[in-house]
């Protein structure tokens, strides 16, 4: 009886497994089967029938591997993002935006009457929209180092970077130094000079000077924090090269970088093509400066800055923690 029962159990398991396979596999000619064959043919055409680390399949595998490594840290990442966003928004909403406006107007030259410069809101929620966008940018900037820290082991396993992830702390220090220096330079000299030039031209033309609140503060942002971000681009490129991202890769992927910057500008700046190009062109110029600096430092790409690594050596080695 026991042997017979085992045979029956085995038969039932085999039948259940067959039913599961029949449910998961699409029938020939069905929509699922056509989609599977179409997607496979599409990728085969893009990769010429072979998948390696440089084609779309390789990039997808890398991205998925890195994202999977971040799932266990999602709560911390999202928590930090929300805390910074809420804190920044609360500061702006509770009077911070007015304090920035007053302090900035006080830095204008004495020949410019702050009363001639009016900052207006065409809609009651216009200021709120700017505060939300600005808070989101600050929160994203504060979260990126944490994401990089948690994703570093996965990036290293995919041979995208090299070294211990504690180098992130040094990176943050260098980038904050460049950002703060550019911010001080822009807030003290660049932004007041730009506003003064615009106001003087309008006064000569006997025009009434008024700025929408979002345009006024985005102008301040671009001429203060923007200067710091431009200074950080070459610094970040040098740091990435020391971590194993090769100069030849950065030089060969400038088109993808351009598309990424334009996409970011379209999403996080005012809905204006001029504004998008005002952000994209300076960033790409800074990217070009970074390539020039790396060209000199790496001897034309023949020797990257990563410790113990050159073009003649293997590109796929990673040091342990």
Descriptive overview:
It is a single chain. The protein is mainly α. It has one domain. 73% of the residues lie in helices and 2% in strands. A two-stranded parallel ribbon has the order 1-2. The radius of gyration is 27 Å and the shape is globular.
Summarize the structure.
The chain is an all-alpha fold. It is built from 10 helices and 2 strands.
Which secondary structure elements does this structure contain, and how are they paired or packed?
Layout: H1 2-24, H2 31-47, H3 56-70, H4 74-106, E1 117-120, H5 126-157, H6 167-204, E2 209-212, H7 213-242, H8 247-252, H9 254-268, H10 273-297
Parallel strand pairs: 1-2
Helix pairs in contact: 3-5, 4-5, 5-7, 6-7, 7-10, 9-10
Count of DSSP-assigned helices: 10
Poorly predicted sequence stretches spanning 5 or more consecutive residues: 20-26, 29-40, 45-49, 310-321
Give the distance, in angstroms, between the N- and C-terminal Cα atoms: 58 Å
Number of strands: 2
- The ordered string of helix (H) and strand (E) elements is HHHHEHHEHHHH
- What sort of overall outline do the alpha carbons produce when their principal axes are compared? globular
Work out the count of structural domains: 1
Portion in strands: under 5%
Compute the average pLDDT. 76
- Assign the structural class, choosing from mainly alpha, mainly beta, alpha/beta, alpha+beta, or little secondary structure: mainly alpha
Q: Which percent range fits the helix content? A: over 70%
Radius of gyration, taken over Cα atoms and rounded to an integer in Å: 27 Å
For the biggest β-sheet, the strand order reads 1-2
Give a short account of the largest sheet: 2 strands, parallel
InterPro entries: TatC
Membrane topology: Multi-pass membrane protein
Subcellular location: Membrane
Transmembrane segments: 74-93, 134-155, 167-190, 216-240, 252-271, 277-297
